[in-house]
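Q: I'm building a small set of examples for a reading group on sequence design. Run inverse folding on the following structure and report the sequence directly after it, with nothing in between.
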C-alpha cells in the first residue's frame, strides 16, 4: 500500500475536491444547454405551425383576432359548467390561431365553436373547473387557457400564472409612436408580421354591428421581399404574458350586453387593448445609435413627409435583453403591468446567457447575440427593409447575418 506524506495527502484531497467541483459544475451547464435546445425546438415548431397557417389561410395570423361568439343558448347552457355564462365575443391571439398545428385541437375548438365559453359566469365565484386571475386576466375559463408546454421556455422561471404560461413572442413590427403618427404606418406590411385584425371603435345599437377601423392588411410569406431566411417570426421574452389574453383585457371586456349585439368595442386607443401588440409580441423602435451623426442628416427616413425625420437614440431597454436601469441583474424582476411599460418590454429577452433564440420565416432557428447592432435587429424585423419605416433605409444586412 502506498504511503503519502502530509503534503501529498493535502494535494490529493484538493485534487479530488477539484474533480468533484468540476463534475458538480457540469450539471447545471448541461441543464442550461438542454433547456436552451428545448426552447429552440419548441420555437421552431411554433414557427412551422405559423407557416402552415399561412399555407392554409393564405395569410399570416394577426396578433389579435376574432374567433367567434359564445352563443349562450339553451344547448350551450345545458352543460353544468356553462350555466349563467353570458354571451360574449372570443377575441384571442396569434397563439390561438395556430393551435390546430400544435396538437391542441380541443383547445382550439373551445375558442372557435359557439357552444363553448372562454370566460366564466362570475370571476369572483368561478365554476368547479376554475378561472384565471392575475397576469392571465380575471375570469377567463381554465379550459380556454390551459398550460401548453410548447409556449413557456423551460429555462424561464418568471411566469406568474399557471394558466397559459408563455414566453413566445411574435414579430409585431414598429412600435406605435405617441407623436401623432397614424397607426396604419406602424401596421405597414413592410414593417413587421403581426397585425391587429380586430379593432371596433363603435357599435351600432340597432344592428349590433361594430365599425371596424385601423385593422391591418393581410400579409403572407410571399410579401417578404428581403427573404424568409432574413425575417424573424418569433423570439422569446421573459416578461411575455399568458398566450390566450389579448392585451390586458379581462373577461368582462368581452361580454355582449345587448341581445342583438354582434361586436364589442375593442378600440386600439384604449390602453388595455393597445397592449395586445406588446404583451406577447416584439417590436422595433424608430431609433438609431448614430442619431446625432450630422453626416446622416439627409439619409434618414422621411416617413411619408417631405424631409428626413431624425430618430431618437437607442434606449437600452429596447435592445435584446434590455433593462430599464441598464442593470442586467434586474432582467428577471421586470414585469408588464400596464400599456405604458409593455411597449418598452416588447423586445427579445431570455434566461439563456448573452442572447436569445429566434425563429425565422423559413422555419429555421438561430441564436441571436444580445449585442447585435440595432440596425441589424430592425432589418431582421422588417420583411421589406428598403421600403419600411426604419431610420436608415439604405442599410444593407451584412453577409454574416444572411442565411
Amino acid at each position: 500500500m502506498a504511503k503519502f506524506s502530509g503534503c501529498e495527502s493535502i494535494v490529493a484531497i484538493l485534487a479530488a475536491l477539484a474533480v468533484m467541483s468540476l463534475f458538480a459544475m457540469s450539471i447545471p451547464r448541461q441543464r442550461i444547454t438542454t433547456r436552451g435546445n428545448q426552447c429552440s425546438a419548441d420555437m421552431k415548431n411554433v414557427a412551422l405551425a405559423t407557416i402552415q397557417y399561412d399555407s392554409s389561410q393564405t395569410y399570416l395570423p394577426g396578433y389579435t383576432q376574432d374567433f367567434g361568439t359564445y352563443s349562450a343558448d339553451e344547448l350551450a347552457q345545458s352543460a353544468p359548467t356553462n350555466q349563467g355564462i353570458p354571451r360574449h365575443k372570443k377575441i384571442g391571439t396569434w397563439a390561438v390561431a395556430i393551435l390546430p398545428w400544435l396538437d391542441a385541437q380541443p383547445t382550439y375548438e373551445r375558442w372557435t365553436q359557439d357552444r363553448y365559453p372562454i370566460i366564466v359566469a362570475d370571476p369572483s365565484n368561478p365554476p368547479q373547473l376554475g378561472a384565471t386571475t392575475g397576469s392571465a386576466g380575471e375570469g377567463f375559463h381554465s379550459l380556454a387557457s390551459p398550460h401548453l408546454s410548447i409556449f413557456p421556455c423551460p429555462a424561464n422561471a418568471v411566469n406568474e400564472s399557471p394558466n397559459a404560461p408563455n414566453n413566445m413572442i411574435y414579430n409585431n413590427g414598429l412600435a406605435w409612436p405617441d407623436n401623432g403618427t397614424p397607426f396604419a404606418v406602424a401596421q405597414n406590411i413592410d414593417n413587421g408580421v403581426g397585425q391587429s385584425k380586430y379593432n371596433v371603435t363603435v357599435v351600432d345599437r340597432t344592428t349590433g354591428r361594430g365599425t371596424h377601423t385601423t385593422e391591418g392588411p393581410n400579409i403572407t410569406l410571399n410579401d417578404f421581399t428581403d427573404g424568409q431566411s432574413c425575417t424573424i417570426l418569433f423570439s422569446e421574452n421573459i416578461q411575455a404574458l399568458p398566450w390566450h389574453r389579448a392585451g390586458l383585457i379581462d373577461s368582462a371586456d368581452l361580454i355582449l350586453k345587448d341581445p342583438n349585439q354582434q361586436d364589442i368595442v375593442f378600440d386600439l386607443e384604449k390602453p388595455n387593448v393597445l397592449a395586445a401588440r406588446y404583451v406577447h409580441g416584439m417590436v422595433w423602435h424608430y431609433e438609431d445609435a448614430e442619431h446625432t451623426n450630422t453626416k446622416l442628416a439627409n439619409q434618414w427616413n422621411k416617413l411619408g413627409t417631405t424631409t428626413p425625420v431624425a430618430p431618437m437614440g437607442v434606449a437600452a431597454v429596447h435592445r435584446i435583453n434590455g433593462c430599464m436601469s441598464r442593470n442586467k441583474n434586474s432582467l428577471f424582476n421586470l414585469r408588464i403591468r400596464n400599456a405604458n411599460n409593455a411597449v418598452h418590454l416588447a423586445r427579445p429577452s431570455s434566461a439563456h446567457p448573452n442572447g436569445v433564440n429566434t425563429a425565422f420565416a423559413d422555419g429555421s432557428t438561430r441564436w441571436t447575440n444580445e449585442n447585435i447592432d440595432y440596425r441589424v435587429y430592425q432589418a431582421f424585423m422588417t420583411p421589406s427593409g428598403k421600403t419600411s419605416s426604419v431610420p436608415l433605409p439604405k442599410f444593407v444586412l451584412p453577409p454574416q447575418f444572411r442565411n
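The helical segments are 6-57, 74-77, 94-97, 105-112, 183-186, 271-274, 339-345, 374-381.
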